[in-house]
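Hi V.,

You were right to ask for the full record rather than a summary. Here it is.
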Amino acid sequence: MYIDSHCHLTHNHISELGDARALVDAANEAGVLGMQTICCQIADEFDDILKTIKPMQNVWCSVGTHPHDASVEAEKAFTRDDIVKLANSHDKVIGIGESGLDYYYDNADRDDQKISFRKHIQACIETGLPLIVHARDADRDCMDIINDEIKNNPSKPLRGVLHCFSSGEPMAMEALDIGFYISFSGMVTFKKSDALRDIARKIPLNRLLIETDAPFLAPMPYRGKTNQPAYVEYTALELAKMHDMTRDEMGKVTADNFFTLFDKALKTWVAP
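Predicted structure:
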């Protein structure tokens, strides 16, 4: 059993493979029995995402603003309390994000990214839902903001995951120290990803998650093609090799970890 912890079922780049229902059906046939589709723009996406997945079994979503969109006026208008309200609006909403910092593309003003990131963290602390972190070329600033918000709210825990991990080992170890999970995508299967695989080997089994980030980053042997949730098993296989496990054993481990972190999903989980 596999759970794709992070995909984008309604992204326009994935539509060439079929609608969300077709993608979920294909994933189910490949042994992917659940997935979380991620919100990147609350104003433009959230309502449509929630409407799309409501009738689907074992498909959940997040609510959040991607750092690329942190300077969009409609996204800036959402407050921490707004995010809290939307996160609590339906049992299918199980996480907050993806949010964070992206200094590689710098599609949004860095101050706007930091403000957006903080309000998402604060919404996570308020609701108890996990934070889904996007970090690219901004490791230190990301961790400084996370640690600062934890310090500012000592009585309320913060849970989260570094999604599609591609950062350095120091960030991974620091995130583990505060209780976060690390999620790996198809990138870990790429031939030139030796450094990433070295980090993946050091992540404790009880903190691993797998994802596709579909439609992006299709794993080998589909690299260069449009990614889909059905391909998450290839990431599971690569991680299994590192930990001397079978692909199915890694699937079970990462599925159990998913439900430990995104425990709200258990409210609507239908066991096979």
